Amino acid sequence: MEPTRTGQEVQTENVTVAEGGVAEITCRLHQYDGSIVVIQNPARQTLFFNGTRALKDERFQLEEFSPRRVRIRLSDARLEDEGGYFCQLYTEDTHHQIATLTVLVAPENPVVEVREQAVEGGEVELSCLVPRSRPAAVLRWYRDRKELKGVSSQQENGKVWRVMSTVRFRVDRKDDGGIIICEAQNQALPSGHSKQTQYELDVQYSPTARIHASQAVVREGDTLVLTCAVAGNPRPNQIRWNRGNDSLPERAEAMGETLTLPGLVSADNGTYTCEASNKHGHARALYVLVVYDPGAVVEAQTSVPYAIVGGILALLVFLIICVLVGMVWCSVRQKGSYLTHEASGLDEQGEAREAFLNGSDGHKRKEEFFI
Questions:
Q1: DSSP conformation class of 110
Q2: Long-range own/partner contacts, residues 59-64 (CB < 8 A, 24 or more apart)
Q3: Less Cβ around it within 10 Å: N or C end of the chain?
């Protein structure tokens, strides 16, 4: 604190304290010769007269009275304690100094409220209120460590301030259970400290449903347990089990989220459903039950190799037939080509014989025949 000086005999320092804290008010004396020293509160009531208590307020204690310094200690500081404290030195000339006490009010934990119930796909509006602070608290919103932009307003009420901030944002079902933080800070708090309130989002949404089976493959005589995993806000409080267009087997035991089917038989086959609903919607899940006969399963497994062998043999026969057909086709085509060339040769021989007989110059030639 910067000292305030109006004379050489008395010196004081201004003091700032948080409400409920401890303040020390000091009067420094110069050239003190044993004269009377009086300390008064802002109402000009005498607290101490030459080291002797004058006001019965146990919150004020005389910590030191020496030729160089008078020091009093104030516990549990209050707003009404704020003001100027007089240090008066009575000599031939009266000298006094005023030490100003300033009381700050730290914010309490903010009060966070929601304006109306949040529903999936809509917007939610939250308000954060600090009813008392001095100076006016600064409010900030955080979500997933990221600051949200809010709108603040403040109102002075005597020596303190009432501060409020609101924030709006869109929500989805994944936001249900998310944490929103409102933080308040002012100079009355230690450096780096703040007051925070966490608000858990309550977002309502339509239900979802999935069926989980206790085992993947079921055989005759097994016991199967189906569980309907339901999610929704508000959570559906009633779950209904059905089997297609048929009624549930008489042995079936439906208890809330579970359906137990003991001693399975093939007659239990079918499509089983679980249904759940709340005021925001309806959900339905399906499970197709097929009960296997162990004997049929073994027979099906043993017949698989024969089927594979039969398929391979059929493929080989088909390939052989294709090869034979190709060979025959190639043979027929080559024979046709030979016959064509042979016929062409005969035609050429006939033409040559006719030319020989007729002669190339058109004259008649004598023909001889031998008998």
A1: P
A2: 63/24
A3: C
CB 55 within 8 A of CB 40: no
Whole-number Å distance between alpha carbons of 215 and 227:
11
Query: Residue 302 has which token pair?
Result: 């043993």
Side chain identity, residue 316: L
d(CA 33, CA 209): 91
Burial class (CB in 10 A: 0-12, 13-18, 19+), 60: buried
Are the beta carbons of 195 and 107 closer than 8 angstroms? yes
Spatial distance between the Cα atoms of 3 and 12, rounded to a whole number of angstroms: 6
Rounded to two decimals, the pTM is: 0.68
- Given a contact cutoff of 8 angstroms between Cβ atoms, the answer to whether 125 and 115 are in contact is yes
Interatomic CA distance for residues 61 and 48, integer angstroms: 9
Contacts of residue 223, Cβ cutoff 8 Å, sequence gap at least 6: 214, 260, 261, 262, 263, 264
Dist. CA 25–CA 14, nearest whole Å: 8
197-251 pLDDT tens trace: 999 999 999 999 999 999 999 999 999 999 999 999 999 989 999 998 889 999 9
Among candidates 55, 116, 49, 111, which has minimal Cα distance to 81? 55
- With contact defined as beta carbons under 8 Å apart, do 40 and 47 qualify? yes
Q: Is the peptide bond before 305 cis (omega within 30 degrees of 0)?
A: no
